[in-house]
Write a structure and sequence with these properties.
Order of helices and strands: HHHEEHH
CATH class: Mainly Alpha
Number of strands: 2
Number of domains: 1
CATH architecture: Orthogonal Bundle
Largest sheet: 2 strands, antiparallel
Helix content: 40-55%
């Protein structure tokens, strides 16, 4: 079955990990996050290191180490997390990135651009704090 839209595994790991870390009472390590997300610990580690580099997380090594938020949960949008991993979401005139269109009217009716804008708007409106219990 075909999917019109799917998050990358890295994007999904980033968003889910950040929510788990925000909800946790203590630091979470890669193994715990990998178990909770059903992801490879190596992929989780790679994604989380990117989030550390982009100043979303603090990281401590050792037996009592793990990850914690570097900023308040109400100041981090899901868009910021997503773009940290995937890069800036670009709204283009053509879903095929064609410079010259052979048609007078977009065959797709700009539905792809509208979906992208809606996705971006949704992620912008969602803060980590919205997922705290």
């Amino acid at each position: 079955m075909s999917k019109i839209f799917a998050l990358s595994e890295a994007g999904s790991i980033a968003i889910h990990s950040m929510v788990l870390i925000a909800q946790a009472d203590e630091k979470l390590n890669v193994i715990k996050i990998a178990e909770r997300t059903g992801s490879s610990k190596h992929h989780v580690a790679k994604v989380l290191q990117r989030l550390v580099k982009d100043d979303f997380l603090l990281s401590n090594r050792g037996p009592h180490g793990g990850f914690a938020l570097k900023k308040d949960a109400d100041k981090i949008s899901l868009l910021e997390i997503y773009e940290s991993i995937e890069g800036h979401i670009e709204i283009t005139n053509c879903p095929m990135d064609n410079q010259i269109c052979p048609f007078d009217k977009c065959i797709m009716g700009n539905v792809m651009n509208q979906m992208t804008q809606n996705f971006k708007d949704y992620l912008t409106s969602q803060k980590l704090a919205d997922y705290l219990q």
